[in-house]
Amino acid sequence: MNPRAQGSNMPSKRATTEETEADLEARVRAAIKVAFPWMPDGAIKHQIKFTFKFGRQTLEVDAAKSRAEARLDILLEKDDKPLAIIELKRPGIKLTDDDGAQGLSYARLVQPPAPLVVVTNGVDVRILETFTGNPWHPATATEDAFHDLVTQASRVAGADIRHAIETLMGTTPNVWMQAVRLVSAETITELTASLDEPALPFAADFLAPRAATHQLWRHLVAGEKLLVLEGPPLAGKSNVLRELCARTERSETLATLYVEAGVGGGALQTLADAISRSLSWPVSPQEARDWLIRVSHHDGVRLVLAFDGLGAVDAASVRELEDLTSSAFGPSLSVVVAMDDAVAQSVFKAPNHRSLSPLGRRSKVVSVGHLRDTEFKLARSLLGQRRLYLMTGADMAPEYREPWVLRAISGSGHAALKGKPETQALSLPSLLGPRLLELVRKRFAHDHELRRMFRGLARSMIADAQDQSRPPEIVLQQLELGIIRRDALKTDLEPNDLQWLIDHGFVRPGMHDIAGATILVRLPELLASEMAYALADEIVKRLNEDLHETAAWIAGAASNLPLGEVVAAQAIVDAAKRLNGLPVGLISALVEIPPEREVLDAGGHYAMVLPNGTMVDIKFQPDGKGFVIIDGEQHEIDLGDEEQVTYKNIHPWLILSHVACTPFEVMGEHGARREAPNLLLQIGTCPVPLRGNRGPQTLRMLPTMDMAGGVSIVHPEAGVIEPVTLGILDYLSAAEDQADAWLATAAGSGSVALLSRVHTALGVLAAFETHTRSEWAKSQLSAVILPKLGEALDDAGEPWQQN
């Protein structure tokens, strides 16, 4: 048996298969000796990393990062000035007639131009003149000969520079990958919002990560040629492409060229314009196409063309995208197109409307919409980095799942903190309500034509929702979605408005099995804002009528519209701001319609709609069983022996809970007075949670505590998830003079519901250590509210644990 070293069976000498940086340095010095044997040692210095001008951009060549390639480009300097670009091929690789083209391009673009190009494999040498591209054969290598070369190189013609750029863009991935990333960065910077142009799609320091970006990345790595990113308007498609650019910027194999679609004469023209503008490399659409063909055949790297905002009416771009994704291009070109889902529905269909178009057949679709839970957590963390903190309970607010809303509050919050010490932060409300419509109105303040058309849609939506002959299926869907029957649109839009809205993705046509032809409005918040204006007009007209009838009409409108309670609340506030104000009797009439407890029939048949528009049938059986039918599938549930309870007439107080969050005055016998504090005392006694059901968070169970007598309150750890509780918090945070008296009234109410809401609001205020009212809130909580809440719970026969 042969003895073996203990503890190791590895060979004693490690083999190195990859060239180290020291190896590269040695090869370069040897090549210099071969190319310039008459030069004394040390006369020529070499730069493994160097930069060169590429139009208006500066690009970098780093041979150290490319040691594995068969050919490296290195800058040689003499007397601190460029002498030559040396193309250093691997030992044993023969020189060919094509060698030198890349080196000549670099030599013409470095500043000042390098007079020579050297091609060598360490043994064979070829030296070219930069000015002519011809071999350099001097009679004697004197200083005068070098001086003549330098003079000639400085006269490189514009055509030669253009050719140099074309050569590098078509043959050198290291160059074109840098170049397209610079083009993307410049375009994105141009589209980044500022104080002068706040409506541009990007925010400088706010980019929330999206799952859709990761999906696109995975598909691109897998080699997909065409990806379609679809979603409703303002869902964040542009920012997904921006995030894709940022992610591929760090990749050695993927580079993304971001192109703003819809601003030129087709996809290729837009692409050519972007390249020409950023790189000072004037190319025609055909030349851009030729370049893409060359790039598409590069091995090991991939160019991703990201077109943002394709429109259904952009027929030229659609045809060119079909060309770019055809077999005319190699496997190293991928196309990502972002478009509204309504546009995708049109683009994916062939002209016969029966089969798929080429784009429809070739594409993989990635959808983006509301923020998912993980995305919301990341966005919330990003806000925190900007010293903006959402209150507990914000995860239950559907409006915060809209990317544009987060971007808007980020911008306004950042502006509010500008110039403030780093130790100061801003707490943002956990739900927005009418504040959401304020953001909408600011966002679309200057889109007059779009607002005009949406005002027409709003009137049509209100009229359609009041039609008593509507099928029940459409009634339920209109509670959640901006669906309008086509017949209801005839009088409120101008002849070409609807087609324009369809073509630009703001509405999507549909066909309901029972209700017939419909449209789906893709900007529900803008629709809600314009519905509030239209409802305010109607409220003002009805103020001379019986106020109880007007109140019932407002509540009925809210119960039949998407975002109805917010729309109606904003309409009341809008009407109150008009010349004659709002009579106090209207608010009183709404207060007089409180929620009513209703026991569902044991054999009853009910229906509801999910946030995505899916209908759900619910059938109760006398034996305590129930059947839930979703998409034709029946599921049996055990309801137990307890009564099934719901509340009707919820909307009047739900509307008022939003109104109470907005400071406003009403006209009474003794003039104008602020009504919100009194409303909060009344609405706060509601025995059930006052919260609208809409959006993706609708299916999430509210964290509640059930009390005796049918009272149900929100668990205090859930945070502020009701508008009325937010109104109480806002009032107690600001009303220093009247707050003690208001709290005393609330404490004496004996209402478990009101006291629990005040308890939650004071708890949040007390936790704001830096707020001027924090200590006051702690004192009132311990001395007044907690004892009274304990008494109220004792009276109701409920156990009480003070915390």
Approximately how much beta-strand content do the residues carry? 15-25%
Q: What proportion of the residues is helical, as a percent range? A: 40-55%
Strand order of the largest sheet: 1-4-5-6-7
Q: Rg from C-alpha positions? A: 35 Å
| Number of self-contained structural domains | 6
Beta strands, count:
27
Query: First CA to last CA: what distance?
Result: 78 Å
Dominant shape: elongated
Low-confidence stretches: 1-17
Structural class: alpha/beta
Largest sheet: 5 strands, mixed
The pLDDT mean sits at 84
Number of continuous helical runs = 28
Could you walk me through the main structural features you see in this protein, from its secondary elements to its overall organization?
Residues 1-17 have low confidence and may be disordered. The chain has 803 residues and is of the alpha/beta class. Strand 13, helix 14 (403-417) and strand 14 (426-428) form a beta-alpha-beta unit. The termini are far apart. The protein contains 28 helices and 27 strands. Helix 4 packs across helix 9 (285-295), helix 15 crosses helix 19 (524-542) and helix 23 (651-659) runs parallel beside helix 25. The longest helix is centred in the C-terminal third of the chain and has 22 residues, at 774-795. 42% of the residues lie in helices and 18% in strands. The chain folds into six domains: 21-168, tt1808, chain A, CATH 3.90.1570; 174-367, Rossmann fold, CATH 3.40.50.300; 372-419, no CATH class; 429-600 and 643-683, no CATH class; 601-642, no CATH class; 697-803, no CATH class. A five-stranded mixed sheet has the order 1-4-5-6-7, sandwiched between helices. A five-stranded parallel sheet has the order 9-10-11-8-12, sandwiched between helices.
